[in-house]
Design a protein that fits this description.
By secondary structure, the protein is of the alpha/beta class. The chain has 7 helices and 10 strands. It has a single domain, classed as P-loop containing nucleotide triphosphate hydrolases (Rossmann fold), CATH 3.40.50.300. Helices cover 32% and strands 26% of the residues. It has a 6-stranded mixed sheet with strand order 6-7-8-3-9-10, sandwiched between helices. Strands 2-1-4-5 form a 4-stranded antiparallel sheet, covered by helices on one side. Helix 3 packs parallel to helix 5.
């Protein structure tokens, strides 16, 4: 579904990724690990078309179209990748802190009202803790609650693959468990997940772990 082949990534002249290859299939959770600066965020940004220049191949095949070989997306703008089914939650979450939980969810959604309502109901079922704070400004939520909202907001775009940058970092263990359970529920529904994460509560449930060391996949 997502296939990254010999990916190099650059910030201007500085190279951050060297020949990284990986695959993520529907219903699979692949966890990226590595020290600070190893290139985890850069890999997610490369797949999403943000900030970095890349060389190599990034191929995406929407599920439900098994006959197609997938499309090469690395020349695409970020919004086109999002429309094609790639959902991304940045490390800093990028919420609208002055807006309420419900407004943050609705602002991400496109399409007819009934479809938006259905997506919202699904997202809230996954994160029931958000149901009691729909009118609350995002600024008045804990870090873990904000992280749930950031994931829920991305789900409002109807993604088929989720790219998550350290969703459990700095979050209370009980909320880490909620986030882990929500991600496992999505996985069981066929979502593909590529997650940069050191937290073992989540990493221990990965289908595959990929260790990045200084911009390279260890062992490759
Ligand atoms: P962290 O957990 O600290 O976010 P990471 O594994 O996600 O670490 P990256 O943020 O991808 O690592 O960084 C990989 C390399 O790219 C590092 O050498 C970093 O200094 C460099 N880098 C990251 N962002 C930029 C940027 N905007 N401009 C220049 N270099 C950058």
């Amino acid at each position: 579904m997502l296939e990254v082949d010999h990916l190099d990534a650059f910030y201007g002249p500085a190279q951050a990724l060297f020949g990284v290859s990986l695959q993520v299939h529907p219903g699979e959770m692949v966890v990226l690990q590595g020290l600070n600066g190893a290139g985890k965020s850069t890999l997610l940004k490369s797949v999403m078309g943000l900030e970095v220049q890349t060389r190599g191949t990034i191929r995406y095949q929407p599920p439900g179209d098994p006959g197609s070989a997938g499309v090469t997306i690395q020349g695409w703008e970020t919004h086109r990748r999002a429309q094609a089914g790639l959902g991304y939650v940045a490390e800093d979450r990028r919420l609208f802190t002055g807006l309420s939980v419900r407004e943050n969810l609705r602002i991400a959604a496109r399409g007819p009202a009934a479809a938006v309502a259905a997506l919202e109901a699904q997202a809230l079922d996954l994160f029931p803790a958000l149901k009691s704070m729909l009118a609350r400004p995002a600024a008045h939520m804990s870090g873990g609650e904000q992280q749930m909202l950031a994931i829920a907001r991305t789900l409002m775009t109807g993604p088929r693959i989720l790219l998550l940058d350290e969703p459990c970092e700095g979050i209370a263990p009980v909320l880490v468990e909620s986030i882990r359970d929500a991600l496992l529920a999505l996985k069981a529904q066929g979502m593909a997940l590529l997650v940069a994460e050191q937290n073992q509560l989540l990493a221990s449930r990965a289908d595959r772990l990929l260790h990045l060391v200084a911009g390279k996949v260890r062992g490759s």
